[in-house]
Write a structure and sequence with these properties.
Small_HSP; flat; HSP20-like_chaperone; about 40% strand; stress response; mainly beta
Length: about 140
Amino acid sequence: MSRRRNPFDDLEEFFERFSRQFEDQPGFDQDVFGMGGSNRMSIDLADRDEEFVVTADAPGFSKEEIDVRVTDRRLTIEANRDERSEESDEIYLRSERHSEALRRTIQLPEPVEEDGVSATYKNGVLTITLPKREPETGGKSIDIE
């Protein structure tokens, strides 16, 4: 007897090939699809019963340069920094500029209480605590006539 092939194996293989093709394209913004990129911010997402905890690496940024937003079930972290130093003496003026930007958007597995979200930033590590939203209880009861 021959064994039937699992159709989901074919689908998984298709998505892996599709992903590899996009990764090789210059200028492709992989972060839009949650795939990373050259200025990638490393993220860990932990499920701790009543809450999700996201830990993100953003070394070299101050907390004022980091923006965290939660919309629906999507968490977006942006870090933008502009460095500018000027050196002057009697002979010349030199200006050097450097900017750096990190951005990461992730889809959360469950809805969260947006008002209860908190974040801390210490030693280049951003920790975001997102309390899970209580499940809706039973919906609306409909009277039958």
